[in-house]
From TrEMBL:
Pfam families: Macro. The lineage of its organism: Bacteria, Bacillati, Bacillota, Bacilli, Lactobacillales. It comes from Xylocopilactobacillus apicola. Residues 1-167 form the Macro domain. InterPro entries: Macro_dom, Macro_dom-like. This is Macro domain-containing protein.
């Protein structure tokens, strides 16, 4: 069973096997956590991402961590929230599930996630937290031992802490 922890922090500082990036479908960097990861990993990441030719919403692709302390970066575009009737829940679940599959494929033991889609993509926070934690706790893991949600602010940490008490 995967051990789950919620912490407050900056995911670019994580010393883990893989961090997950809440990317966009171009994989060419953007704002929020995506911008912070591209900035901290350095220009080699931009070149590696260019060679991946984008990624569909809910899917995941992996690059090295380059200048980051993390060995790998798993890039997944989460869904943009519209009204909840555009498959948003399923797509967010896919982002977590497919990122964990990528982590397994790279024999990762430790994986850190940001709160995917709850920034500029406006997915409701508690709803996203429940989907994230359910998907992680039900994932059939072989190599992954520990997953952390790295919340950038206290409101996000509180939502995931609460969702953890429900799961
Ligand atoms: P999305 O486009 O998927 O909504 P955002 O980057 O806008 O992605 O936001 C996702 C979450 O990542 C938000 O909670 C935001 O506060 C958070 N975030 C921003 N920078 C960092 C960081 N350096 N480490 C961890 N989380 C971050």
């Amino acid at each position: 069973m995967i051990q789950i922890e919620i912490i407050k922090g900056d995911i670019t500082q994580s010393h883990v096997d893989a961090i997950v990036n809440a990317a966009n479908t171009t994989l060419m960097g953007g704002g929020g956590v995506d911008g912070a990861i591209h900035c901290a990993a350095g220009p080699e990441l931009d070149a590696a991402c260019e060679a991946l030719h984008g990624c569909k919403t809910g899917e995941a692709k992996t690059t090295p961590g380059f200048n980051l302390p993390a060995k790998f970066i798993i890039h997944t575009p989460g869904p943009i929230w519209h009204d909840g009737k555009n498959n948003e829940d399923e797509l967010l679940k896919n982002s977590y599930f497919n990122s964990l599959k990528e982590a397994e494929a790279h024999q990762c033991h430790t994986v850190d996630f940001p709160s995917i889609s709850t920034g500029v993509y406006h997915f409701p926070l508690l709803r996203a937290a429940k989907i994230a934690l359910n998907t992680i706790s039900n994932f059939p893991s072989y190599s992954i031992e520990k997953v952390r949600i790295v919340a950038f602010d206290l409101q996000t940490k509180a939502a995931y802490d609460y969702a953890l008490t429900l799961s």
